[in-house]
Design brief:
Elements lengths: L9 E6 L11 H7 L26 H14 L5 H11 L3 H11 L2 E7 L9 H8 L2 E7 H11 L3 H17 L3 E6 L14 H6 L1 H6 L6 H18 L2 E5 L18 H5 L7 E5 L6 H10 L3 E4 L1 E2 H4 L3 H12 L5 E2 L8 H24 L5 H24 L1
Parallel strand pairs: 1-2, 2-3, 3-4, 4-5, 5-6, 6-7, 7-9
The structure holds zinc ion.
The site of zinc ion has 4 residues, from loops.
Length: 385
Amino acid sequence: MKISLNHVPAVDVHCHPYEANQEPYTNDEFVRKLSLAVIPNKTPEDYVRKEKDPFQGTNMWMQILIKRLANYYSCEPTLEAVVAERNVRARNFRQYTRELFQDANLTGLIADFGYPTPMLDREAYVDLCGARIWEIHRIEPLMVRLRQECDTFGEFAERFRAELNEALKRHEVVGLKSIIAYRSGLEIAGKNETAALHQYAEFQDNERAEVKALRDFCLHIAMEECTRSEKVMHIHTGIGDGEVVLPKASPSFLIDMLRDKSYQDTKVHLVHGGYPWVEEAAFIVSILPNVYMDISLQNPFAGHGVERILSQVFEFAPFDKVMYGSDAFTVPEMNWMGVHLFKECFEKVLHGWVDADYMDVDTALAIGEMVLYRNFENVYRKHIE
Ligand SMILES: [Zn+2]
């Protein structure tokens, strides 16, 4: 019997809002929107491109997207044809986005409004995509603002905690998020208020300063507030855009903090499942009862690698600890491709498990549903109804 996840709804547990582009995209602009690079791709002036060569700067995930979008639009499978058709359809961006969401059976999102900046309007995004939206509240923009408003570290620390507490009281906010992996890395030291105080002046001068002790201190406060409110702490792990502190981004750096007795009741969500160190994240969620992971970013941006990754993740991760995600951040095609690529890759993995006689078809289908939306419901149940 064929395993199909086509009918299964999906909840995307990590992605970002976007808005309509004002002008139609050029081919280069569209490729740039699909890229994680901070620095634009540069094609040498003497670059020779032959007829069947992929468009310059495209990689495997973009190639798959071009092919799948061409099927969806019924157009030629070239970047040029896809961009031309996209520009026509996206004139009504709301309808275009909603159709993509419906085609993917994407019913809900946990959105990180911390990117892009300035922050987009929540209601406008809800109206645009037509799905249910829950939010996580990023701690770093709050730190940046308070450093300008507070003369002393004492006042900063007090207001930081109070404002996190306020944010967590909002019904639609399911947790906090930190991108400390983009600033000082994931090797979090114990909470040290004196060391943090000594770095406050430097942070007041430069919002991007490393100030590791101060950032670690703020993450501990965020963990404490999530614990108290019983909401979920999201921590960016693994690669991201080109600014990530790559040598300190693997999830194993977090393990001392995660094992700390004072956080044994804190729910932690490892965003991006630590890619490319997915096995580390899978191991961590297998040994710590309140730690979960998603497969966003690696899905869909690892392209054909999504099948391999899903197989690897479940070498250690319990079936109820992994959630679907995309990290879509500029265009709705990312949300759409995320669901479709995940489903086609996971179907292949599940088939392999059934063929190997590890489980029957019904159990394989149940695992597909768990990752696509039921694990999300179990982890977030208290805050989504
Ligand atoms: Zn993200």
